[in-house]
Amino acid sequence: KQSKALEVVADVTKPEDLRRLVDTTIKHFGKLDVLVNNAGAGIAANISDKNFYDNYLKVMQINLNSVVYLTHICVEHLEKTKGNVINISSIAAMRAMSGFSPYSVAKCAMDMFTKCMAAELGPKRIRVNVIK
């Protein structure tokens, strides 16, 4: 049995796009076995930069908030299949780099979110792991 690949264009900063992504996937495949959170963006930003906070918010939205929201809306489907969540992190979560604090903070927070979800979802037989 062959399954055709599914392509869905989505902006991970828009919750409605993420919902459509999940709904389209379920409609196409009938289930969800694995969620891979791989979207990421690193914007160079020093704390003294005029636009630092705007860049910080963008990086957090892409690298952390999308992971949290997608995981949240996929749990009901992953419970049915005893599925997996794989979050893609970075060495930046473990090593401080000048000019990239928003990215490092987002990836570090995602790593802890992964640990929390592993503890919370493990009893439901959903594996949650991070790759750095």
From TrEMBL:
It comes from the Eukaryota. SUPFAM superfamilies: NAD(P)-binding Rossmann-fold domains. PANTHER family: EG:BACR7A4.14 PROTEIN-RELATED (PTHR43975:SF2), ZGC:101858 (PTHR43975). This is Short-chain dehydrogenase. It comes from Oppiella nova.
